[in-house]
Amino acid sequence: MSRTRIAATSTTAVLSLALAGCMGGNIPDASAPITQSEAQTGAEAHPQLLAEFGGAMTGSQAVYVEQVGKNIAVQSGLAGARDSFTVSLVNSPVNNAFAIPGGYVYTTRQLVTLMNNEAELAAVLGHEVGHVAARHSQRRQAAAQRNSILGAAGAILSGILLGGNPLGQQLGQAALQGSQLLTLKFSRSQELEADELGIRYLDTAGYDPRAMGTVLSSLAAQNALDARLQGRDDARLPEWASTHPDPASRVQTALNKAAGMTGTINRDTFLTRIDGLVYGDDPEQGVVEGRQFIHPELRLAFTAPQGFYMVNGTRAVTVNGQSGKAQFTLAQYNGDLNSYVNSVFSSLSQQQQIRPSNIQRTTVNGLPAAYGTARVNNGQSQVDVTVFAYEFSNDRAYHFLGITPAGSASTFNQMYSSVRRISTQEAASVVPRVLDVITVARGDTVASLSRRMAYSSAQEERFRVLNGLASGEEVQAGQKVKIVVRGS
Questions:
Q1: Cα-atom radius of gyration of the chain, to the nearest Å?
Q2: What string of DSSP letters covers 282-345?
Q3: Average pLDDT over residues 170-197
Q4: Confidence of residue 452 (pLDDT cuts 50, 70, 90)
Q5: What are the boundaries of the signal sequence (predicted)?
Q6: How far apart are CA 183 and CA 443, in angstroms?
Q7: What are the DSSP calls for 174-191, one per residue?
Q8: Widest CA span of the chain, in angstroms?
Q9: Which helix (H) or strand (E) holds 447?
Q10: C-beta atoms surrounding 185 within 10 Å
Q11: Cα–Cα dist 426/423, whole Å
């Protein structure tokens, strides 16, 4: 979660309709040039989109991603000049890639760290360009308009309560960072169509088209590992955590489409160029360590309940479990905690008034706090919605928005009571994890290299997924591999 104040923007509607995030038969004409209207749409949405995903990164790594992206984008026929495209590496810890009309293409640094060669980077960016070339976002526009999302983090329940859908069913989409709320999910046929277009672009650019299948395989493996580490039953990331719909089901299709094709992959060049990328959470946006969230710049921390897991986003931290979900974020604060709590409740619905039965004041670890709970009808049942707010200064406050089955609001009491300020010393101890690209020495093994991973659990599994190594596959002397280490 960044320190930027959250506010609704006038461009939210544009982003909701335009954003083509997805990673996760006959193809119609997918080479019509970028229109003036599409260019204007993209130009208007671009600054807000960057803000939603942690901002555009700079430096040699970002330049490299831009070069590869422009090279693959021109294969689409959308525009004849490389300068017609804007390719951005964004500072997000989520595995994601997306594009919007007008030639704007994006990938997160986290997804780049999962790749193992330049052809895979080109495949991901080519897939996204394929969505734009096939005008998938425009074809989804009518559905998006029927299910418009307000975008402000304070209004994350509006889509649920306004839409008339059961609250429990929709909570997975509601408990989101703002950036993911703006992302459209494409149909399976559209995903396969974008895969096929991406494969076509890879072939014409001289890359190995099989990279589309291998990068999808790595993403599926990462999803499965995340599910196991987070204690989830399925191996797919829930919709609120990723816009990549079931990559595992698309791997073989992509490999079949690319059968018999060959090309360059530029593995060593790619690994050398991404060396040093931040892996996972950026301390400037806060860090999740096990059940603790700690933000060195905002000087705060809290602990999730046992059995729950957290996902850190640019705008908010989500806390997820079988018995409830919550989001930690901030809103405008005028110095009155009671007013703050009421304003969060007011933002939840435009069709019905949601008010707590009362607002109570308390102190949590020396912080002035206020909270209230409202019971809300949820189809055939009811749920409790709790807002728990904390004052950190005269003009800065944060809050949890928690949702639990009726009568179970106390599920998060321990978490609500864990919010605290952190010391300068504790803040200084928070350092990022970064990629370290090394050359395998004689005698090195997967087991020995895995022990160098900056994690206390699942070291070998993380190492294998990070490097695209199958179970039982070994490394070879002279080979470049990635490990994750503590930065400075």
A1: 23
A2: -GGG-EEETTEEEETTTTEEEEPPTT-EEEE-SS-EEEEETTEEEEEEE----S-HHHHHHHHH
A3: 56
A4: very high
A5: 1-20
A6: 46
A7: HS--HHHHTPPPPPHHHH
A8: 68
A9: helix 446-450
A10: 17
A11: 5
Q: What is the pLDDT of residue 485?
A: 98
SS3 358: coil
Is this prediction's pTM over 0.90? no
- Position of tokens 């991404």? 274
Residues ≥6 apart with Cβ < 8 Å to 27: 134, 193, 196, 197
Where do runs of H (alpha helix) occur along 231-276? 248-257, 267-274
Asked whether residue 402 carries a pLDDT value surpassing 70, the answer given is yes
Instruction: Please state, in angstroms and rounded to a whole number, the distance separating the CA atoms of residues 316 and 152.
Output: 11
Q: Which amino acid is at 473?
A: E
Residues in the chain: 488
Q: Name every residue whose Cβ is closer than 8 Å to that of residue 143 and which is 6 or more positions away in sequence.
A: none
Distance between CA 255 and CA 250 in Å, rounded?
9
Sequence-ordered list of residues with C-beta below 8 angstroms from that of 414, at least 6 positions apart, any chain? 303, 305
CB count within 10 Å of CB 437 equals 17
Q: In percent, how much of the chain has pLDDT > 90?
A: 56
Q: Band the pLDDT of 156: cuts 50, 70, 90.
A: very low
Which pair of tokens denotes residue 406?
């009726």
Residue with tokens 């700690």: 294
- Is the model's pLDDT at 158 over the cut of 80? no
Average pLDDT value for residue range 115-124: 97
Q: What are phi and psi of 301, to 5 degrees?
A: -155, 155
| Mean pLDDT within 463-485 | 97
- Domains of the chain plus CATH, in order, are 12-140+184-278 (no CATH), 283-428 (3.40.1000.10), 433-486 (3.10.350)
Kindly state the tokens that stand for 362: 């308390």
